Amino acid sequence: MNCIFCDSSKQSKSVEHIIPESLGNKRYILEKGQVCDECNNKFSSFEKKALTRSIFLIQRIRTGVATKRGKNAQGVLDEVNIQGDSAFRKGVLNVNDEDVKKIIRVKNDGSREFLFKAFDKSEVSVSKMLLKIGFESLFKSKKEIFQKYDFTHLRNFLLAKDNNDWPFITYWYERAKFTSTLRMYDKHLLKTRYKCELLYKEVDNDTLLVKFVYGDVKTIINFLNRESLLWTIEYYGTDSNSEAWPKQFRKKIEDLYYNNKDKFTSIFSE
Q1: Contacts of residue 70, Cβ cutoff 8 Å, sequence gap at least 6
Q2: Distance between CA 60 and CA 82 in Å, rounded?
Q3: pTM, 2 dp
Q4: Backbone phi, psi, residue 74, to 5°
Q5: Could you give the CA distance from residue 71 to residue 81 in angstroms, rounded to a whole number?
Q6: How far apart are CA 32 and CA 251, in angstroms?
Q7: 267 near 176, Cβ under 8 Å?
Q8: For 165-191, how does the pLDDT look when each residue is reduced to its tens digit (9 = 90+)?
Q9: What is the widest separation between alpha-carbon atoms in the chain?
Q10: Which residues touch 156 (CB under 8 Å, ≥6 apart)?
């Protein structure tokens, strides 16, 4: 078969891990030929950046997951080199002594907390990783949804044919029921071991929301239209912890919220 991204019959030597191996996934895969080697190589660069220069790095360290080469998680946030434990103990974070003062804040009660940027110049890479994961998951497990919509814009963005930023949000509170893209066995395995979930919700012809949860990291992205942002209003209006990424979308979303909050009927109503 042809590659699901570029629609070519180019060579494909290996299976494709839908959720990156460096997040712990070993079994949820696409077979050889479904993603070509050329696309796979293109995707590896933004995937690496998303996993080593964002909050996903901290979550990988919390779970003690090894990279696909069997090494401890490591990366850079705020120009600080961070590593997980070499024995993969959960939650053990290693930082050079001279860097500790850069990332620790002493609270009023005397306790200390680590402060990191959620995304260290990696927002675009995270957007691409979320779209890639969700797209492959729909192809694997929800063929009826995959075949229902036109994903040309998504493919062009991932293949660097269109470089306009694609927004996503991080959130804390659950706002509505989403449907898992995963089959029962995969769903149980990923959620039990890594607190990992992939879910979707059809809203309208411009809005297919896909949610990717990995531990404490919760993200939502619209697969059909990067310009349509009305779906974000429900989160901005009820969840003070929700944030839009890249940051340049925040002003637009805030304006949408204040201009529509009184007349807006929840797009999430069942």
Answers
A1: none
A2: 11
A3: 0.91
A4: -155, 150
A5: 15
A6: 43
A7: no
A8: 999 999 988 777 899 999 888 888 888
A9: 61
A10: 162
